[in-house]
Amino acid sequence: PLSVKGDILFLLDSSGSVSYYEFSKVKEFMWDLVRPFTFGPNDVQTSIIHISTTPTMEFPFDRYLSRGTVQQAIRDTRQLMGDTNTGKALSFAKEKLFSNDAGARPDVPKVLVWVTDGFSSDDISEPMQLLKDMGVTVFIVSTGRGNYLELSAAASQPPEKHLHFVDVDDLPIITKELRDAMLANRLRVVDITSSSFRLTWPQLLSQETGYYTLQYAPTDDLAAKRTTQVSGAHTSLTLSNLAPETTYEVALVPESNIHYFPPQTIRVTTLAEEISPAQILISDSRPHSFQVSWAPTPDSVTSYQVLYGPLRGNSAQLLEVDGTHNSTVVENLAPNTTYLVTVTAIYSSGMEKSLSAKACTQEGERAPQVAPREGQIGC
């Protein structure tokens, strides 16, 4: 499931100009579009507004907060018929997208998806511009001919990412592309390590139109909030000198002097500190065995690998040791021989860190004084 935060509103043409077949196909498309999302008060919420003679909200944003209930609510949506008063529906949508009574949340990304057959009885340009000025990202899917110039002006910019013309039977073709575009308008995190991560976001501002305020703090110590300002020309920033295995709350606030953009938030957990086994200790050395111990490393170590072989030789053997242990006995060794032992910590992140040491086996009891075999070094 995709865990992101936002209110998604579908503007659904429910008028008499849409056939029953087209209406059912659009409902399938709506569910396919949101199906991968996680729903909930801290994740995605969704709602539907009908375009008809009088606009109607099918259900508030906060009523259905699981995938099963959202799917059923979309299936149960019935066509209202009536006129195609899209402008009225857009003005209604502007109220509901920012209304606590409708279950909408303040300061979360707002997305409007308008599926249309391309015809509207009233003017859409002014109410649509008001929505965009309030920070709503507008996607338009036209299943009819539609007026390209009118619809490209209505959609968020650039139109090639926010406006689709497609036959109703081909809606599945654009589903993933549209969903990816919805996600691309968000704050994202990449390159997470134990002490840093990089934030990326879409280009909302420019050097001339504003700047970003970035705030971040550990979830369990929000009073330790740090704030930094970032040029409007930038679309990424690396935060460093962070604590390992710590969850941070991050907020990006676009400070625009032209449009309002809602803050974008994300929660990020740094990886465990990946350190090498601090010290290898060789003990209880015997002619055919010795014990290898190492300082315990963090809980994020899933296992250790102990590789050993004669210092001068081309053979080596591998022992796997559970991450909860920090010692093992190496057996079946040759007496009076120097071995190279390498302990590797395998972390849950996939990282590996190693440390090596030399170890000598004891002389065998009453062992005849013969030259060491090839590959062995006498201790």
TrEMBL record:
Residues 183-274, 276-364 form the Fibronectin type-III domain. Its main location: secreted. The keyword Transmembrane does not apply. GO terms for cellular component: basement membrane. InterPro entries: ECM_Assembly_Org (IPR050525), FN3_dom (IPR003961), FN3_sf (IPR036116), Ig-like_fold (IPR013783), VWF_A (IPR002035), vWFA_dom_sf (IPR036465). SUPFAM superfamilies: Fibronectin type III, vWA-like. It is found in: Secreted, Extracellular space, Extracellular matrix, Basement membrane. Keywords: Basement membrane, Disulfide bond, Extracellular matrix, Glycoprotein, Phosphoprotein, Repeat, Secreted, Signal. The keyword RNA-binding does not apply. Gene3D superfamilies: Immunoglobulins (2.60.40.10), von Willebrand factor, type A domain (3.40.50.410). Residues 7-187 form the VWFA domain. PROSITE patterns: FN3, VWFA. CDD domains: FN3. It holds the Pfam family VWA. Promotes matrix assembly. Involved in the organization of skeletal muscles and in the formation of neuromuscular junctions. PANTHER family: COLLAGEN ALPHA, VON WILLEBRAND FACTOR A DOMAIN-CONTAINING PROTEIN 1. Homodimer or homomultimer; disulfide-linked. Interacts with HSPG2. This is von Willebrand factor A domain-containing protein 1. It comes from Phasianus colchicus (Common pheasant). The lineage of its organism: Eukaryota, Metazoa, Chordata, Craniata, Vertebrata.
